[in-house]
Write a structure and sequence with these properties.
With 290 residues, this protein is an alpha+beta fold. The protein has 10 helices and 12 strands. α4 packs across α8.
Amino acid sequence: MGSGRAEAFSRMIEADVLAKAYVPEHIPSLMAIISRGQPFLAEEYLGYARDNWLILVGYPLEGSFTQERCEQAIHQSIETYQPEYLWFIGPEVPGMLLESCRERSSDFYYQLDLSRLQIGGALRRAVKKAAAVLRVQKGSQYTREHRALVGELLRRKELPPLVTELYRSMPAYLHASPTACLLEARDLDGKLCAFYVIEQAAQKFDTYVLGCYSHKRYVPHASDLLFFEMIERARGSGKALINLGLGVNPGIRRFKEKWGGEPFLKYEFCEARLGSIDWASWIDSLEGKL
């Protein structure tokens, strides 16, 4: 990697990326299916491109983040793909994008370190209580039941557009990804009460992708039971970490922290709209800075 130009993917490159991955966006199968973009490498940075847009993951696969290295990767990517829209995520927004940035948000990734995890008595009792009335199993396919639970969720909560699209992309993602795991909590009549989606492709960690539970068939602590099962499966496959995704809102943060999740990496998002830019002049100006 780091060849100085955007590099097309191969199985060997993907295996190398998965060995170095430390955020969910470093998982090509997850991001390519959900975004429908093609993965590529620019320097030590991973990106996804399609049509008139580009996503650049500003967490280098090797070495520490620096503005200079990241801007070099952005320059290469823009010169290759000339997108109208560029979505950037990373620990900080590079200065070269600030003027064209139209939307921004900040958060933290949360991580669960299984080597230090100690599950308290109250949580164990909650899991045991839920396990008495629910059965956890690995689902074989995304069905009308799962769609109904997601429909309930989207009607009762106004979620950020990107999160809504993530939920809506689950049928295609679960159908296409061999490393995705659909965990279901069903009542004693076999009815679906809650589910989790977990991505297991990264070498060092599992990723909590999303979860959903039913209000119509609400069972207390169904999410805790699924969380416990997610931990057991990660341990069973030799993983020491679970990436729990972003904090999103206070309620989600409290749930992740209750289980021992900790913020471990700054997250900055920027949507840059580049469609009106004179590409030749812009690239010339970038080359003068780099």
